[in-house]
């Protein structure tokens, strides 16, 4: 889905990325700015302003996260550290938003939704960890229904329309299922089924 979205928004992202590249702003700087904006959005959400927090996250911080890769390509700054830095700060950003939502739920005394939010936080981190661990074993692991982009969209929409219990429930279930999909994928790769044509006839 992320590749599909990147291809469909290329005509918007590339002109903006070219303008930023001309200013000499590095991709890592944009990545860091996206994190800071997400932390700000988390603070706004925790202060019982989910609409503004969702808009800040969904309309400003999230697009910046898409632009940093394009800037890296334009400035020929693609390297292992940049990819690592982007991935790590994405985890901090997602965690910050969910922590902000947790604080909001406490203030609103919506206690039944708090464990669901924590499950969503766990699931989102496990989606990323399962991929990272698999790739550490030299296994490509991009499978799964809910990588980061749809998770962020669900959070942003849930905040903007103020339907957090629904959004968090979808996010928790979908992210945990995606983690399971990736575990099953790695199991299948590491335990290939023998070709029946090569099995001995008894």
Structure overview:
- The structure is a single chain.
- The protein is an all-alpha fold.
- The chain is flat, with a radius of gyration of 19 Å.
- The model has no long low-confidence stretch (mean pLDDT 87).
- pLDDT < 50 runs, ≥5 residues: none
**Spatial gap, N to C terminus:** 46 Å
Shape: flat
The main sheet comes to: none
Assembly annotation: single chain
Summarize the amount of helix as a percent range: over 70%
Radius of gyration: 19 Å
**Strand fraction:** under 5%
Number of helices: 8
- Mean pLDDT across the residues is 87
| Class from helix and strand fractions | mainly alpha
List keywords for this structure.
single chain; 202 residues; 8 helices
């Amino acid at each position: 889905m992320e590749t599909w979205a990147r291809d469909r928004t290329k005509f918007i992202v590339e002109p903006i990325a070219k303008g930023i590249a001309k200013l000499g702003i590095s991709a890592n700087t944009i990545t860091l700015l996206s994190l800071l904006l997400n932390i700000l959005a988390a603070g706004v959400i925790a202060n019982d302003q989910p609409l503004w927090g969702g808009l800040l996250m969904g309309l400003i911080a999230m697009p910046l996260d898409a632009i940093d890769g394009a800037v890296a390509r334009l400035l020929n700054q693609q390297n292992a550290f940049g990819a690592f830095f982007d991935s790590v700060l994405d985890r901090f950003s997602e965690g910050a938003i969910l922590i902000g939502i947790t604080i909001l739920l406490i203030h609103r005394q919506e206690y039944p939704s708090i464990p669901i939010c924590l499950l969503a936080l766990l699931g989102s981190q496990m989606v990323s960890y399962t991929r990272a661990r698999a790739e550490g074993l030299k296994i490509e692991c991009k499978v799964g229904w809910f990588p980061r982009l749809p998770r962020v969209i669900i959070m942003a929409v849930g905040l903007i329309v103020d339907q957090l219990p629904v959004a968090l429930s979808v996010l928790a279930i979908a992210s945990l299922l995606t983690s399971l999909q990736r575990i099953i994928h790695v199991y299948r790769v590491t335990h290939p089924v023998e070709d029946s044509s090569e099995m001995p006839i008894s």
